[in-house]
Design a protein that fits this description.
Chain B: GO terms for molecular function: ATP binding; DNA binding; DNA topoisomerase type II (double strand cut, ATP-hydrolyzing) activity; metal ion binding. The complex is a heterodimer. By secondary structure, chain A is α+β, with helices and mostly antiparallel strands. Chain A has 16 helices and 16 strands. Among the domains of chain A are: 69 residues, Helicase, Ruva Protein, domain 3 (Orthogonal Bundle), CATH 1.10.8; 205 residues, Ribosomal Protein S5, domain 2 (2-Layer Sandwich). The chains are: A alpha+beta, B alpha/beta.
């Protein structure tokens, strides 16, 4: 949900985006009265034949129209904040930190900077907390700050297909709005774009009706002048560039795996190239050191693959494209469609090659859609993803979890609905710190973001349950997670991770995705199975050794009773037998 | 049958010791005790064990059972030499002194005991081990000649003089003598039916000896009837429930022995026994109330038809069992009470006894 406009973005692109935005906005405004009229019409028609036996006050379409107003996106989300993960005070704290951290990491990576994050959560009262997230990213240019943090659905990531943490451009401004709603305090942003340039600090509120930022205060930061505030001074000049976001929200803080603590710990695991300092509300300081000294391979942006496009989207693309004919539309707007292939598709759909895409009627779009689905196309480019990698998965896991055995795997990319994705899995097993007979602990990541809620609805959990763990020497009841001292971690990276809801808590169960997850899990499972069997073999050998020690004397006693032999002969029998058995055991 | 088992035990132990001292792994050979390893001898009338044996070699994996088997043999030797006995349960408790080699459950010690018994092809009483359970009850025209256990003086036990009670078959029956003028022995499955026949003096009316088995007959019960029938040359009729359990478990074990005790069937079977009822045909002839066959009943019946050498040999039996399965019902002895409590005494038994040639083999 990052909406940062980066310095690194080329000039022309920078200009283009707000322009696009402005163009699309009036479209929404227009749409509302249109649909309202549609809805009102049948009602009015139905009213006519009704006999006026009772004095019911009937309203005309015109009366209704007077009541129909545009609903702003911000207003909508004020009323439906659960959709974005603000349903409970505990979850609100987590979501706020998550949105800020996602943005910070995305910004650093896009700018090619190894991320250094400082997260400070402090308690103001039992139900009110202050969240500060600071990064060493590229900073934000002054003019963009108000819109990024004070306007919903303003961002750089929604229109692209690229592996990133944020997608829609709702997150951080929604968090700001939540703070504003529950505490009345504006969101405060400080940004430095470089050591030679002055920094800026803004306090911003959202005009929820118009979905527009309102600047409460604004000041220039002089890097050389010490901050009056002690806390700010501590982080003030830690970096030459970067952004600090500060929010005050209504929230409750809980410890444990499903809390902010767990989220930050897991974020550090999935982002071994980041260093994270976290100061919890109780003052405890957690330092997660950087494990990898290199940034992950930068993910690439790709055009949508035709097989992943739905009819509605296709219609929209047809009407919005600047292409002059169907062939250049198909060739230009999609990946993996060459000009000859585009021509074939147009022919198969019964459309003239020279037809203007903007003029395509609904029926024509539909036949085009069918032709696209039927067409044989190359799979989308898959080298656009950025995996964590087997080695770093292992190191991340080792750093956070003490166990006897670790295994990790990183699979090659695959495709679901035209979107490339890849799955990585790792596990830690055994050792004193993991609980013995309980169900295993699941750690789920999507594009390096930990998923803490809705575990059972998630394709990752389902795949782990559907894996036959008994094969690997792990206990498992039917239809349940395996029971073992084990942590299983699964990461799914994609240009578009399909979530089951907007709050991005569970991955949807596409068969292609489930299949890849299972293959990844089987891979680490096999490695674990080898380890466990080796352990069992050793235990078995040990048991046999003790067997010999325990039972041979009884053979001696029995023979002595039956044959009336003396002790010396008994000892000789025992010693000889022990020797014979141990020799045979070693030969086994 | 009374030959001492001690030399056999010593011989086996000696060969184990010698193997060990020769740095070889010793082994013991046990006959396989199952229906698959018996053949039905028609003339002699019992299940004879076939030659198949399993060899238990002393290895790292078998060292525990091997030690337990040897200690059980040692216990047996001590019992026989000191003229003492131990019940299966007592033997289990004796093993509690064996430290690591002790048994955790009695079933474990019973299995080892059965193995030792089979190893020497003797009866467990010869090893000094005695069963826990009672042998069976007897009432009727019979005098059992026993000895006073303390004085050794002869005792004559008149089985007509127990009133509403009965004479209990002892565990060891080898030395008993018999006097009787009874025309037949009627062997009954349930204690309830036995009581009814005793109470109404059926043995007097029919001039017979009544024996209650109380389910699958014990070895003592089988041996007692075998000796009685052999010595006095009187026929044996068996009266059990008309179901696969009564036929294949109780009657078959009684008449020809079992797979598990295959090595001693020769002595613990009653080949002259005939099956009086309840036959599948009785269910129709006497219009008996029935219950449906349970799944285990059907399985047991099919198993008997397929694997039991006794039923495979006797076509009449195969036919009868198939008949029962096709009817899909079973009838208990007590079902006769549907026609009046004493119908069994007044009508069923007299009618049946008139035609022993119609009994199933």
């Amino acid at each position: 949900m990052a909406k940062r406009q980066l310095e690194l973005i080329p000039r022309n692109e920078k200009k283009e985006r707000p322009a696009k935005k402005a163009a699309s906005k009036p479209a929404i405004v227009r749409a509302t009265p249109k649909t309202a009229a549609k809805r009102a019409a049948p009602k009015a028609a139905a009213a006519k034949p009704a006999p006026a036996s009772k004095p019911i006050v009937r309203l005309t379409a015109t009366d209704l129209a007077a009541r129909q107003r545009e609903i702003s996106v911000s207003e909508f989300f004020t009323k439906n904040r659960h959709l974005l993960g603000f349903d409970s005070p505990a979850k609100a704290l987590l979501t706020t930190v998550k949105e800020a951290v996602d943005n910070a990491l995305d910004a650093c990576e896009e700018a090619g900077i190894l991320p250094d994050l400082v997260i400070v959560i402090s308690e103001i009262s039992e139900t009110r907390y202050k969240v500060v997230v600071q990064d060493n990213g590229p900073g934000i240019v002054k003019a963009q700050i108000p819109r990024i943090f004070g306007q919903l659905l303003y961002g750089s990531k929604f229109h692209t297909l690229r592996q990133a943490r944020g997608q829609q451009g709702i997150g951080i401004s929604a968090a700001g709005m939540y703070g504003q709603l529950t505490t009345g305090k504006p969101i405060r942003i400080a940004s430095h774009t470089g050591s030679k340039k002055p920094g800026h600090e803004y306090e911003i509120q959202i005009d929820t009706k118009r979905n527009q930022p309102v600047i409460v205060s604004e000041r220039e930061l002089d890097g050389n002048q010490p901050e009056p505030d002690k806390e700010k001074r501590a982080v003030q000049r830690a970096f030459d560039h970067g952004t600090r976001v500060e929010l005050e929200i209504e929230a409750t803080y809980k410890k444990g795996r499903h809390s902010v603590d767990g989220y930050i710990e897991q974020t550090a695991m999935a982002n071994p190239h980041a260093s994270v300092t976290y100061v919890a509300p109780d003052g405890e300081r957690h330092e997660y050191a950087r494990v990898a000294q290199e940034l992950p391979k930068a993910p690439l942006e790709i055009k949508p693959h035709p097989h992943g496009v739905e009819l509605g989207i296709l219609l929209k693309m047809l009407h919005e494209t600047k292409a002059r004919n169907i062939v250049s539309f198909l060739h230009g707007e999609f990946s993996r469609v060459s000009a000859p292939v585009a021509e074939e598709i147009a022919k198969a759909a019964g459309l003239a090659v020279s037809m203007s895409p903007q003029k395509a009627a609904r029926e024509q779009a539909e036949s085009l859609y069918k032709a696209i689905q039927a067409a044989k196309l190359m799979a989308p480019q898959s080298n656009v993803l950025s995996p964590i990698g087997e080695e770093l998965l292992l190191e991340g896991l080792k750093k956070q979890i003490t166990a006897d055995f670790y295994a990790a795997t990183s699979r090659s990319p695959a495709v679901y609905r035209g979107n490339p994705f890849l799955v990585e899995a790792a596990l830690a097993y055994g050792g004193g710190s993991l609980p013995g007979d309980e169900l295993i602990t699941m750690i789920r990541f999507a594009n390096r973001v930990p998923l803490l809620y809705q575990q059972s609805a998630c394709a990752i959990t389902k795949s782990v349950i559907q894996t036959t763990w008994k094969t690997y020497g792990i206990q498992q009841s039917r239809g349940a997670l395996p029971a073992a001292p084990m942590v299983v971690m699964v990461h799914i990276a994609s240009v578009w991770v399909p979530f089951t809801s907007e709050s991005k808590e569970a991955v949807a169960s596409y068969p292609e995705i489930m299949k890849e997850i299972k293959l990844a899990i089987q891979d680490v499972g096999r490695k674990l199975g080898l380890y466990i069997r080796r352990g069992l073999r050793e235990a078995d050998a040990e048991k046999k050794r003790s067997y010999i020690e325990k039972y041979i004397p009884h053979i001696g006693i029995a023979l002595q009773v039956i044959l009336d032999i003396d002790d010396k002969r008994k000892e000789k029998v025992c010693a000889t037998l022990k020797d014979t058995l141990e020799r045979s055991r070693n030969n086994d | 049958m009374t030959e001492s088992v001690v030399p056999k035990i010593k011989k086996e132990a000696k060969s184990v010791e010698e193997s060990i001292l020769k740095r070889k792994k010793p082994s013991l050979r046990f006959p396989i005790r199952s229906l698959a390893n018996v053949r039905y001898l028609e003339k002699e009338g019992y299940f004879e064990i076939r030659g198949r044996k399993k060899e238990r070699t002393l290895t790292v994996n078998t060292v525990k059972t091997f030690a337990q088997t040897l200690r059980m043999m040692a216990l047996s030797k001590t019992l026989v030499e000191t003229d003492d006995i131990a019940t299966k349960r007592e033997a289990y408790y004796v093993s509690k002194n064996w430290d690591e080699a002790r048994f955790l459950e009695q079933t474990e010690s019973d299995t080892v005991m059965d193995d030792v018994e089979a190893l020497f092809e003797v009866n467990r009483e010869q090893l000094g081990f005695v069963p826990e359970e009672k042998g069976g009850d007897v009432a009727g025209n019979l005098i059992v000649i026993d000895k006073d256990p303390n004085t050794g003086k002869e005792i004559r036990i008149d089985c007509t003089k127990f009133g509403s009670g009965a004479y209990s078959i002892p565990i060891s029956v080898e030395d008993l003598g018999f006097e009787t003028k009874a025309k037949f022995i009627l062997v009954i499955e349930t204690a309830g039916m036995f009581q009814r026949l005793v109470k109404h003096g059926y043995w007097k009316k029919a001039n017979c000896i009544l024996v209650s088995m109380g389910g699958v007959p014990t070895r003592a019960c089988r041996r007692f009837i075998r000796r009685l029938a052999d010595v006095q040359k009187i026929p044996v009729y068996v009266f059990v429930d008309g179901d696969p359990y009564g036929i294949s478990n109780i009657y078959r074990t009684f008449k020809v022995g079992s797979g598990n005790a295959a090595h001693i069937n020769e002595f613990f079977c009653v080949p002259q026994a005939r099956f009086l009822g309840i036959t599948p045909q009785d269910i129709l002839d006497y219009k008996l109330p029935t219950h449906p066959l349970k799944e285990v009943d059907v399985k047991r019946a099919k198993d008997a038809l397929k694997n039991d050498p006794f039923f495979l040999h006797h076509k009449e039996w195969a036919k009868a069992i198939e008949h029962l399965v096709s009817m899909g019902v079973r009838a208990e002895q007590q079902a006769l009470a549907a026609h009046g409590l004493n119908y069994v005494i007044d009508t069923y038994l007299p009618e049946k006894i008139k035609h022993p040639e119609k009994f199933l083999p």
